[in-house]
User: Fold this.
Amino acid sequence: MRESTELLRDEPFEPEVLQSDLAYHGAVWDVRDDRVRYGSGEIRRQYVAHTGAVAILALDDEGRVLLIQQYRHPIRHRDWELPAGLLDVEGEEPLEAAKRELAEEADLVAARWEPLVSSWTTPGGNDEIIHIFLATGVSAAESAHDREDEEADIRVEWVPLPDAVDAVLAGRMRNGILSIGVLAATQRLRDRS
Assistant:
């Protein structure tokens, strides 16, 4: 069965873009309005043009995952998340961005880093891809980062990984990146044992 599942993969497809306009220029993201030749017709789609992002699933030596909680205005919740951030530094590789974000959001560094999983967050509405990294050998950074706005009151918790999985599966934590990260990390650790 494993052999046939390895054939499952997303496939690139590039229909002719007839017109692509900047519909809105935002402070962080833009909105594009595209007309695309599709089959024998034409479709029009608006979407958020996103820089891409990284997230970090940091595990300590006790098997606990680092979660942060912060206010997210679009959903009017303080949701639990993995430390994460935008790929908004010109030329910065995703791994370097992940290291920067772990220091900025949690004042931590990690000795070991490995890619965990990458995912398009909402492919029907934006082109964001997020790269989630597994970070281990975690320790305090040399200095604390100054935080502003909703980052100023970030709550940080170390949670046993199985408890985080239980909260996701029970619907108590609904952040998609957190869900993907804790489930992927659980499987990765299972595969290693």
